[in-house]
Amino acid sequence: MLYYRKMPAKDNYHDTVVHALVRSGWTITDEQVTLVLPERRLWIDIEAEKASESMIILVEVKGFENPSQVEYFASAIGKYFIYIVALEWLKEEKPLYLAVPVDAYEGILKETLGQGVIQKIDLKLLVFDPLTEEVVQWIG
Amino acid sequence: MLYYRKMPAKDNYHDTVVHALVRSGWTITDEQVTLVLPERRLWIDIEAEKASESMIILVEVKGFENPSQVEYFASAIGKYFIYIVALEWLKEEKPLYLAVPVDAYEGILKETLGQGVIQKIDLKLLVFDPLTEEVVQWIG
Known about the structure:
Chain A is α/β, with parallel strands linked by helices. Chain A is built from four helices and six strands.
């Protein structure tokens, strides 16, 4: 039952994405958002709110630092997909965004494979610039 | 362009699944099946044929040795999903099965999360027994 031992380490870009969201007018309302399923718990990195637009979103940060991009991409979209299934099971309607650095978006995500996956899974993306710590693009 | 350097190592259970398929009357027609996309190549572990039923299938082997099961599960289904997208892009109609040991099937795949993912992604499974090297169950 020692679930807390399984809480994942923050992604390297976690704080970068927090800064980028705050700069875009979002308020961070939660971090390590816990999803409680019957047999296990999952954590999503960030919950953010934009009161002016009555919007609350969830954000999972993936840095794509791994050089074997297909493996990393597979792991990132698998995780996203698992969270989507968990959120649906919980009847949680906040949209989930995968936060990725602009290099990853311009790389594998722009390829035939990446575009195919984005369409098929309805993957929502928050593209950020790790240097300026700004949101570059919202997709989905 | 040195694509061959990226060809993945065989999963620990690769030979086990080959044996299980052969015992069930399948003929292995290819291993490390190459999918050529515009920007990159992917490899699927096994292609097998059952002439008596005019069936050809593709099989990706995942051993689920990793103790952090959610991470491993995410990576396995992400990979499966990427292959499905690639196969559709290539207009390849052979069904793709994820081969998993019976312990994994009785574990995370039987949970709320696993069942939700199986339904949502239409995940096809070949459940094998690593000890007897036999196919236990086909799902999907």
